[in-house]
Amino acid sequence: xxxxxxxxxxxxxxxxxxxxxxxCCKTTSPARIKEHVKSCYEQRPNTFRNCKIxxxxxxxxxxxxYCVDPDASWLxxxxxxxxxxxxxxKIL
Length: 92
What we know:
- The chain is mainly β.
- 11% of the residues lie in helices and 39% in strands.
């Protein structure tokens, strides 16, 4: 199992891969993302066998990956702004 983690702007998130599955989130954070987002994914609790949580995965223009808590208060407005730019979250 490969574990990828980083901390930026006080936000920590963990991504995991296990065999052929793509990266997934094991933990989330409600912290705001201050960087520009280039892509978004929605991980549902049943998407990955080793990542049983609901999360939004944001990839920034600097290729940083953030696992966002779906209950984060700022998330709906950020998703609207992304949609206005043509960026929608793909369901994994």
